[in-house]
Write a structure and sequence with these properties.
Shape: elongated
Radius of gyration: 25 Å
Largest sheet: 4 strands, mixed
Strand order of the largest sheet: 3-2-6-7
Structural class: alpha/beta
Number of helices: 7
Helix content: 25-40%
Number of strands: 8
Distance between the termini: 75 Å
Length: 208
């Protein structure tokens, strides 16, 4: 008896729905991702066993390098611009639109106010190198009547915290930064009644 041949049907899978899902996922990740700028001043943070997650949005980062120089950064460009405008008005510094744009492009800032305009006139690559030798002054400013006012660092923090309702402070110091310098920065924050901040460290695995 002859065998019955079963006609084989071609297998065809419609990949259109899968392609649509992949495009939607790619678009979602592109629109929600935050691109991290390359900071000029880098520090190696000390290790700790804490697993508390660092805030990602509306953060004012205070960086202290091993030489004790203080730098700052903000993730929200709109708040950063508001902070800058508050500082230039307070110190009477005149910045051109080009200089303002240059300030907002840099991932970190840390220049005495009397040098800010000249600093922003140099190219971005040279600014990154020059920044490491400057830093925000932490000495109290003489009011001219024998009293001491807030330091430039304290005034930057004041303007930054006032730029948004949910601003948070984070301190990131190098593991080789002398503790007395870190304590001095923390004391300046306490003098401003800024007692809530996070110390950024690197996670240390528990030893056996």
């Amino acid at each position: 008896m002859g065998k019955v041949k079963i006609k084989k049907a071609d297998v065809w899978i419609d990949m259109t729905p899968m392609s649509d899902v992949m495009v939607l996922l790619l678009t979602f990740f592109m629109m929600t991702s935050t691109f991290v700028k390359n900071e000029a001043v880098k520090v190696n943070t000390p290790q700790s066993a804490s697993k508390v997650k660092v805030p990602e949005n509306d953060v004012v980062n205070i960086t202290i390098n091993p030489q004790g120089k203080v730098f700052m950064s903000m993730d929200n460009v709109n708040y950063l611009k508001t902070t800058l405008m508050g500082m230039v008005d307070k110190f009477g510094v005149q910045l051109t639109p080009v200089q303002q744009e240059a300030f907002l492009e840099d991932p970190q800032f840390g220049v005495p106010m009397d040098k800010l305009a000249d600093f922003l006139n140099i190219s971005q690559s040279k600014r990154a190198e020059a920044l490491k030798e400057l830093g925000i002054p932490t000495d109290s400013i003489d009011n001219g009547d024998g009293t001491k006012g807030k330091s430039e660092f304290q005034q930057w923090v004041t303007e930054a915290m006032a730029s948004g309702e949910d601003m948070k402070l984070c301190i990131k110091a190098d593991s080789k930064t002398p503790y007395k310098i870190v304590k001095s920065v923390m004391s300046e924050l306490q003098d401003m009644d800024q007692n809530r901040y996070q110390l950024i460290t690197s996670f240390k695995e528990a030893e056996d």
